[in-house]
Amino acid sequence: MQNPSSPFDNHLLAALGQADWLRLQPYAERVVLTRNQTIYDSGETLSHAYFPTTLLASLMYVTVDGDCVESALVGNEGLLGVCLFMSGGPMCGCATVLTTGEAFRIPAGVIRSEFNRAGATMRLLLGYTQALLTQTAQRATCTRHHVITQQVAFCLLQQADRSGSDEVLMTQEQIAMRLGVRREGVTEGALLLQKLGLIRYTRGHVQVLDREGLEEQACECYGVLRDEYQRLLPVAACQACLLRAA
User: Fold this and answer.
1) pLDDT in tens, 171-187
2) Exposed, middle or buried, 121 (CB in 10 Å: 0-12/13-18/19+)?
3) pLDDT higher than threshold 60 for residue 140
4) pTM score over 0.70
5) Could you report the per-residue pLDDT of 112-127, keeping only the tens digit for each?
6) Domains of the chain with bracketed CATH
7) How far apart are CA 219 and CA 221, in angstroms?
8) What are the residues whose beta carbons fall under 8 Å from the beta carbon of 193, sequence distance 6 or more?
9) Considering the chain, what percentage of its residues have pLDDT values greater than 70?
10) Of the spans 3-7, 195-199, 235-239, which averages the highest pLDDT?
């Protein structure tokens, strides 16, 4: 049986100063969320912020006709519930679990109180918010201007990064839903990447065989977002890596 995750498996929690973490620690509750579980829907007001440790979540926007597209992917680099400290209002999209895993949730009021201290925690959360906004804007650009093969490579790399593995559990239907494209296009893109020897695909399972080659096939969006997250959250990334290596 896999050991329960630590709060410090989340990069943001790992980057908190000791005094800041000690204020939050009594309220941090480990939860297990399952694949396809809805974390929140559009119009809901969140009661907790969620800090993923092993789960991945997709932030989606759904039209009145039922079409949907992913605006961002959130894993252990971030949190779900930015609106809690930015506005306190209802959610304007939904969040769904992509891969079963754990997160630590902290009550909304506690997060707002810590943010309003206007100290290091506020700066950390604002840095993450900017990175998340950049991801949303870049995803919109990607959908508009890049071919599906590039988008599929980008999607696989994003998920591999956040899961910390070259094994990606995701069906072509899920990829199509995340990208807002037809499944047939995803099939063609995945087959091309497989013919190039970059991935091995079986139903619901993708193994990245040549990461450098896959990065070359991805659009520039992948590199832009990677560099932006490293620029905005360097302390979070470094501390989380050190804790993992310990």
Assistant:
1) 888 888 888 888 899 98
2) buried
3) yes
4) yes
5) 999 999 899 999 999 9
6) 7-121+234-245 (2.60.120.10), 147-218 (1.10.10.10)
7) 5
8) 149, 152, 153, 156, 199, 201, 214, 217
9) 93
10) 195-199
